[in-house]
Structure formats: structure tokens, C-alpha cells
């Protein structure tokens, strides 16, 4: 494997293309997004999307769309002009439980993760149980993102990416 | 934000290499090797070390409290003393004035000024208490994964350095998109080659 810092910079676009594809899939082909057991997931875009485009001389232009029920069409215009999604907040629902979090494309950092509520800690004896509960709930999101990324990577390195996915994304952008 | 906070922040790492037959003892040894040291009343301005998850200000890894099911939960503590520059300036001015009065001179040499500043910073560093910052760490050793509950660049760098110092023979690799694809998706050699050959897609043409 090449030096980690070299890989980080060389393939920075990979996570951003993943988020851009994820947004397209959530809007157009939600049934193709499944969990590890192959069951379609319930996921929606949250209240914040950040897009960036690198112009000449490494100048970065960015567009941030935020707010509940915000008009996301500006984001589509930005992608049409060469931008990619660099950060996106997401809402995931499963069995009446909800998770919200923000995923950053460049490094896959998860921030602002709110898991379903767990009971408040009342004594020190409960810490171990609380750790296990919280880890279990956080793992739901980590595993889910891992599985969506697996779907994306398999597609990205296949013939289907160029033949079907890219044309479909372009149609979405110009619709 | 930490594991038990209302909102969490996670940076993921892969641990390459194997723990010994008795992983708990190996982890305990590594944590004890770099346990946080107290820098109160010391001239040291910063300390970085491991601490207990539940008791970050009284770290102890001799019992099994850092083992939680099939995980290890502990903390990274960074203690830092920050002296406000105005306080340094004030103390340097007072000490300089005193030195001038004692020696009956009008000016101090460049060397004397810098000696005074160094002395003032040293004295203040001993006197002021450090500000502690604690970051949760969970090592899921069966999954070969460590979660560090912060995305702050400086904290992540300190964490990576301390982990490598503490657990020789293990390699900590940050899981960003490329490393996640390469190390966790069980790709075949052919798929791995195709992955390394991809170039940015153009959706605009």
C-alpha cells in the first residue's frame, strides 16, 4: 500500500463521489440501497448538504444548503457545474427508531451522531451496560454506511458505472 | 463528543497485526506504559497519556474495568497549560523594572531580556494548573477496529502517535474512503487493481 497521506489526497474524490451517488440514489432508486441482509433501508437527506468544486489554481467554491425542507435544487445546479457533495446530514430509520448524523466524504468522519435515546445513567454500575448499548446503536450507523459504501465501490469499479449509473445521474441533473 | 454524550463524533481506525494470546494483559501493559502523568507544579507545559474511561482524573488499569464485553474502553487525556500572553508581558515588565532598579541601569541587554522572559514563563508554567481534555477510545479487538471519539486534527494526531508508542507490533491505519475500501470490503486482487486505477468521474459533460 502507498503512503497513507498520498492515498488520502489521491483518492479524496472517492468519498465525495459516494455522497453524490448516495444523494442521487436516495432521490431516484431508494430500493437499491440495502442493509447487510439485503433489506431496503429507510434513509433520507437531513437538513444540511455541503458541495464543493475545485476551480483553477486550487480555489475552492462551496455551496451550503441548510434548513428543514430546504430547496435542494441549488445543489443539483452546483453538481451540474462540477461540484461534488462533500458533507451530508442523513436520517436513518429502523423499527420506529431514528438516527441522525453527518458524514464527511473526504475522511468518512461521522459527526453529530444522535442515536435513539438510552436510559440515563443512575449509578456507576450502569456504565458498562451504557457503553455496550451506545456502541451497539452507533454500530448500526457505521455498519450501514459501510454497507452502502460496499454497494457503491462494487458499482464504481464495474462496467455498470460508466454504462448505466453515470448516464442516469446526468439525466437526474438535467431533468 | 464522547461515547455517552447526547451526540457523538467518531473517527475510525483499523488495527493491523495481532494481539498476543492474552490480549487484555497486552493492552493493560500498553496503557500503563503511557498512562497520563501529573504535571501540576512541574515546568512541563503539556502531557499526553492514557486514562480510564470512567475515572479520567484517577486513571487505573490494574483492575479489569477497561474491558467491556469484547471491547476495551479507555480515554486519551491531553493536559495543557496555556499562559495568557498579557500575563507574561506583565510579569516580564515587573521583573525587568526590578532588575533595572537593582543594577541602577537604564537598559537591559537583549540576552537579559530573553533570560527574564524564559524565567517568567518557567515560573508561571509551574504555578498554573493544566487544562485537561479527555477523548473516549473504544477498541473493538475482534473487529480489529478502534473508534476515537473526536475529529479534531491535533487530538487525532496525538492519539495516533501515542497508540503507536504504546502497542509496538500493531499498526493503526485511519479508515478514510480508500483505506476502508481496500481493507474492509474483502476485495479480490483484480477488484483492488481496478479500485487503485479509478480517476475522478465527470458528471458535467
Order of helices and strands of chain B: EHEEEHHEEHEHH
Biggest chain contact:
A-B, 51 and 41 residues
Distance between the termini of chain A: 41 Å
* Shape type of chain B: elongated
Helix/strand/pairing class of chain A, anyone? Answer: alpha+beta
Range of helix content of chain A: 40-55%
What profile does the largest beta sheet of chain A have?
5 strands, antiparallel
Mean pLDDT of chain A, rounded to whole units?
A: 92
Share of β-strand residues of chain B: 15-25%
Mean pLDDT of chain B: 93
Structural class of chain B: alpha+beta
The coarse silhouette of chain A is: globular
What is the helix/strand order of chain A? Answer: HHEEHEEEHH
Unreliable stretches covering 5 or more consecutive residues of chain B: none
Strand-residue proportion of chain A: 25-35%
Could you give a short account of the major beta sheet of chain B?
Answer: 7 strands, antiparallel
Distance between the termini of chain B: 42 Å
Overall tally of domains of chain A: 1
Low-confidence stretches of chain A: none
Determine the number of helices of chain B (DSSP H or I, runs of at least 4 residues).
6
Structure commentary:
Chain A is of the alpha+beta class and about 180 residues long. Helix content of chain A is about 45%, strand content about 25%. The longest helix of chain A is centred in the C-terminal third of the chain and has 30 residues, at about 125-155. Chain A is globular and about 55 Å long. The mean pLDDT of chain A is about 90. Chain B is α+β, with helices and mostly antiparallel strands and about 200 residues long. Chain B has two domains: about 10-80 and about 130-185, no CATH class; about 85-125, no CATH class. In chain B, about 40% of the residues lie in helices and about 20% in strands. Chain B has six helices and seven strands. Chain B has helices spanning about 25-35, 85-105, 110-125, 155-165, 175-185, 190-195; strands at about 10-15, 45-50, 65-70, 70-80, 130-140, 145-150, 170-175. In chain B, strands 1, 2, 3, 4, 5, 6 and 7 form a seven-stranded antiparallel sheet that branches. The mean pLDDT of chain B is about 95. At the A-B interface, helix 1, helix 2, strand 5, helix 4 and helix 5 of A face strand 1, helix 5 and helix 6 of B. Strand 5 (about 110-115) of chain A pairs antiparallel with strand 1 (about 10-15) of chain B.
